[in-house]
Fold:
Amino acid sequence: MNRESKTQQQYPMIATAAFGLEGLCKRELLALGFADAKAENGGVRFSATLEEAFRACMWLACADRVLLIIAEGRCESFEELFQLVRSAHFSDLLPRDASIPVSGRCARSRLMSVRDCQAITKKAIVEQMKTAYHTQILPESGPRFQVDVALHGDIARVTLDLCGDALNRRGYRTWNGEAPLRETAAAALVRLSGWRGDCPLHDPCCGTGTLLIEAAFLATRRAPGLKRHFDIEEWPCVDIQMLERIRKDAEAQYDPSRIPEITGSDIDPDALELARRHIRQAGLEGKIRVFQRDLRDLKLEAEGICFLTNPPYGERLGDRKQCEALYRAMKPLIQRHSGSSLHVITSHPGFERIAGMRARNRTRLYNGRLECEFMNF
Ligand SMILES: C[S@@+](CC[C@H](N)C(=O)[O-])C[C@H]1O[C@@H](n2cnc3c(N)ncnc32)[C@H](O)[C@@H]1O
Structure:
C-alpha cells in the first residue's frame, strides 16, 4: 500500500475510557468531528485515518487510550486466534524493523491462558510480517507498535496502541501525593460540573492540584496532549507533516490569556508543594493560586464560585469521623459564598445525609478501584 492510500484509509478505532466515562468520551469525539462515535462498555468506537486518530490522541481529555482495531472475531480455539491474527495486514502499517510487544487480557473466555494468547498472537504477527517482507529476520529495533490481544467471551480483539503512555500522562504530574485523582477523571469531573470558565472555580481540598490544572486546560483550550509524545509520531506509515500541522493547530488554539480565576486550598502543606510543582510543570505558574487553609475556615472574596472537589472518602485518607466533620462543613461553605455551587466526588454512601443537602444530579463512576458518586449541589 502506498503512502497516499494509507493516509486516506479509515480504520476502526476505539478510545478506551474508565467505567462511567464512556458517554463523556463519546461527546468529546463527536465534538472533534468523529460523527460515527458509538459508546460501548469501556470505550467508544469510531473510524478515522491515522492522522485523524492522532488528533483524537491530542485532544481527548477523558479517554485512556486510542487503539486501532487491526483484527476482531470469534475465537474458540488457539488455532482460530492464530488464523485471525495471521490474516490481519500488519505489514501494511508496521515496518520490517518494528518493535512489537504484545500484551493480553482474557475475561470469561474459553482461551483462559493470557500468556498463550500473547505468544500465539506474536507468532502469527511474525509469520505475517516475514511472509510479506520476504525475510526470515525481524530485528525489532525500530519504532514501537504495542499490540494488545483482549478476549471477552469468545470474541478476540487485537489492537495497535497509538499513544504509548496512557492519555492521562499529560506530562505535568511527576510526583503523586496521597490519593491523587487521575488526570482523565479530573477532566471528566470538570466537564460534569458544568463549569465552562465563566465563573471562579475553587477546589477546597486541592491536594496535588489535578482538578485545577484540568480546569485551566479546558478554559484555555489547551489540548491535553500538547506537551507530550505519542508512539504514532514514530510510525513511518503516517504523514508526519500532517501530524505536525495538527500539533501546530493545537498550539495556536491554546490561549493562556483566557484563564478565569482558578484557585485551590488544602490543609496539607506537602500536598500544596506538589500542587505548585505540577502547576509550574503545566506551564500555568502565576495563573493558578493555591494556599493553605482548612476548608472549615475558608472564606473567599469572590461570590458565585464553582466549588469542585475530591475530598477524603474516609477509606484511604484519615479516619471516617474526620472526613464526616469535613462533609458537615460543606453546606456552610456554600452558604458563606452566595450564588455558589458545589460539586463533589466521594465513595462515602452517606455524603448527602451527613452534609444535609440533596444533590440535584448524580453520576456513578470509578476513582481507581473505588466506586464513587459525583454529585452536583
Ligand atoms: C483525595 S485528596 C485530593 C486529591 C487531589 N484531587 C489530587 O488530585 O491530588 C483529599 C485532600 O483533602 C485534604 N484535606 C483533608 N482535610 C482537609 C480540611 N479540613 N481542609 C482542607 N483540606 C483537607 C487532604 O490534605 C488531601 O490533600
